[in-house]
């Protein structure tokens, strides 16, 4: 990428690039590789992508591990079944 200012009109052989207006997302950008989108179209795409990112962030916040358990402990709980000794209990291991 060249050192041109973001507001300059790109030449025909260079992709359009719109910088993120959100200062919380430094360096985020959208690169248009073909066509000539209008500013309104770029704004619409940016709004949709921002909404998807916000939705994913909210879903990730709901999936957090409760305090007191590490990620290893959380993933191990569903893998390990309690062992109960007794007659007929080892039949599944005979495979």
Describe what this molecule looks like in 3D.
This protein has 95 residues and is mainly alpha-helical. It has a domain at 16-78. 35% of the residues lie in helices and 8% in strands. The protein has helices at residues 39-62, 71-79, and strands spanning 16-19, 29-32. The chain starts with 15 loop residues before the first strand and ends in a 16-residue tail after the last helix.
Which labels suit this protein?
95 residues, two-stranded antiparallel sheet, 35% helix, 8% strand
Write a brief caption for the model.
With 95 residues, the chain is mainly α. The chain has helices at 39-62, 71-79; strands spanning 16-19, 29-32.
> What is the string of SSEs from the N terminus onward?
EEHH
Number-wise, the strands total 2
Give the overall average pLDDT: 71
DSSP helix fraction: 25-40%
Quote the distance from N terminus to C terminus: 59 Å
Number of H/I helices:
2
Portion in beta strands: 5-15%
Uncertain runs: 1-10
What does the largest sheet look like? 2 strands, antiparallel
Structural class: mainly alpha
Question: How is the topology of this model organized?
Answer:
Elements: E1 16-19, E2 29-32, H1 39-62, H2 71-79
Antiparallel strand pairs: 1-2
């Amino acid at each position: 990428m060249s050192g041109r200012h973001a507001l300059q009109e790109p030449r025909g052989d260079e992709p359009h690039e719109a910088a993120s207006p959100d200062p919380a997302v430094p360096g985020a950008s959208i690169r248009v590789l073909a066509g000539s989108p209008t500013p309104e179209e770029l704004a619409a795409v940016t709004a949709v992508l921002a909404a998807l990112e916000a939705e994913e962030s909210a879903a990730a916040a709901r999936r957090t591990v409760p305090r007191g358990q590490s990620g290893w402990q959380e993933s191990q709980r569903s893998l390990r079944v309690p062992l109960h000794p007794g007659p007929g209990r080892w039949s599944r291991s005979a495979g």
